[in-house]
Specification:
Length: 376
């Protein structure tokens, strides 16, 4: 069936060289993960789908190039890039193949490998081991934040966040359900008055003001999708590997707060609650009640570990403070970055989750505006 679904010249070559055993994820809007053999070795192939969004293909190209060009001191922290059909092509090259892929080793559960998020949610890792692992991961992150830092481009904010937000909102404006949300006047969210998204349009435009607020002092190397679901942990050896660098929106360089806030969202339970469906959204007229259940159900063990509080304390340590002090305005940018992550997923998440993200973004934008006003 897979053969017929992807029946074209390019995929025929892939199938002949790579024997598929099963599909881990997909087909879908972004990529498909295949488990199979190549030259007698079990590998994972990550391949774009023919119906993927353009930005998803761009992200995969950036991921391949990032893994290929890793500095020596980081290569052991990421999966080895075994093979790819990308060659030296860039993300905008007209010669890009219809199916883009790369191969990485298969990290077998039988050898002790499991996603760190699963261990945290199942209570299969104690607080001491969790803190050790996250301490090592955070030290590594702050190592690569300092690698190859560059001057940011003038259009950094537009290319990294603003354009993606407007693209997501344009998609939402064509959807009947979201049009009804856009139309809510005098919005009250969880008992407070908020500006609805249409009233925030000026903050999503590429303007001198937004460039000044959102552009970091340095453009840094990032993981781009930095949270425990993208960390493989070996319960036998205590080793770990960072998976899936570069977010679906192509983030792989820029403001180090993009990585910091993504991990924060996960450790406090907000991001996994959204992904697991542990939230409620009740809309009556212009009154909305959004509750994220991040301390119960499948997230009870994560909450009991107290990693969110530990994470905030760890970020205040002297080893990391220098980077924060060299990035004035990082605390003002942080809530906007949270809103960016919420809004850019509108076309990608299921409808119920997308609605929750919409209202969550409104909350974060209110925090952003308050921080702007308090800084004046």
């Amino acid at each position: 069936m897979l053969f017929h679904y992807y029946c074209n010249g390019i995929i025929l070559l892939i199938i002949m060289a790579f024997q598929v055993e099963r599909i881990f994820k997909g087909p879908g809007f972004a990529e498909t993960l295949y488990l199979g053999t190549c030259d007698g070795r079990l590998i994972i192939r990550k391949a774009s789908n023919p119906d993927s969004h353009g930005f998803s293909r761009t992200a995969l190209v950036r991921e391949i190039r990032l893994l290929r060009d890793l500095p020596e001191e980081l290569k052991l922290c990421f999966p080895e890039l075994l093979n790819t059909n990308l060659g030296d092509l860039e993300e905008n090259s007209p010669e890009l193949p219809g199916i883009i892929y790369y191969d990485m080793p298969y990290y077998s559960p039988g050898e002790g490998w499991i996603t760190l998020s699963v261990l945290l949610c199942e209570g299969s890792i104690d607080r001491a081991d969790a803190i050790r692992v996250f301490g090592e991961i955070l030290d590594t992150a702050f190592t690569y934040f300092r690698i190859d830092d560059r001057d940011p481009s003038e259009d950094y904010a537009e290319k990294t966040m603003l354009g993606a937000i407007r693209e997501s909102l344009a998609w939402a404006s064509s959807d009947d359900d979201f049009r009804s949300l856009f139309a809510l006047k005098d919005l009250r969210l969880s008992g407070r008055s908020f500006h609805n998204i249409p009233g925030l349009a000026e903050y999503f435009e590429d303007s001198p003001r937004m460039r000044a607020l959102l552009t970091p002092r340095r453009d840094r190397f990032l993981h781009g999708d930095f949270f425990p679901e993208n960390v493989l942990y070996n319960v036998n050896t205590g080793c770990w590997i960072l998976l899936d660098p570069v977010s679906v929106r192509g983030v792989h360089r820029g403001d180090f707060m993009l990585d910091i806030t993504k991990m924060e969202e996960w450790l406090k339970g907000e991001l996994p609650a959204l992904r697991m469906g542990q939230f409620t959204v009740d809309i009556i007229g212009n009154t909305v009640d959004l509750v994220i259940h991040n301390r119960s159900g499948k997230l009870e063990h994560l909450y009991r570990l107290g990693l969110s509080e530990w994470y905030h304390d760890r970020l205040r340590e002297p080893a990391y403070s220098g980077l924060f002090s060299r990035e004035p305005g990082w605390d003002i940018r942080a809530p906007f970055i949270h809103a960016f992550y919420a809004l850019c997923m509108l076309p990608l998440a299921d409808k119920r989750q997308a609605v929750a993200r919409y209202f969550l973004a409104i909350r974060y934008m209110a925090d952003f505006i308050e921080k702007i006003e308090n800084s004046l």
